[in-house]
Amino acid sequence: MLAAGVCFIVPAALMVTALARPYVEKGTTPAFDGLLYGMVPVVLAIVARAVVGLAPTVLRSRLSTVIAVAAVAIFAPSFVFVGLLTRLTGWLRGRRWTAAALDGLGATSVALMAGVLARLAGDGLVDLVTLALFGLTLLGLWRTRWNSAWFIVAGGATGVLLTWW
Q1: What is the pTM of this model?
Q2: CA distances from 119 to 23, 27, 29, 115, 122 (A)
């Protein structure tokens, strides 16, 4: 679980750092705006695919589903708890009551991701182009085994090209 978390977070952190530095130094430019314009719907699609993929595994009971809905309503900081408990997961999974608590944390995590995705989609899916990028990325993620980084690169390139037209 720790390795999966690191493999998910480190590339994202490196990308954000790579984008933040030029933005801080030079401010906004049409090319940078285009890059983000194309990348945001693609990243939203990647998160949506992750939520859809995780939901059936995590939301196995009505109680888990109720917990997920409650978490969306209050945006519980479950990622912190999961990160702190990573080393103890095997031991905790062996105990009945802590296994149930971990199931609740998993449901909360998926719900949190879905809630954040919905909020960001309101800001990132602003026109037909961004909706098309979002939809094509979802289709590509479901139909291919391509690394999601390629979708991000393609979305950014599309956004930059559109700013030149």
Answers
A1: 0.58
A2: 23, 25, 25, 6, 5
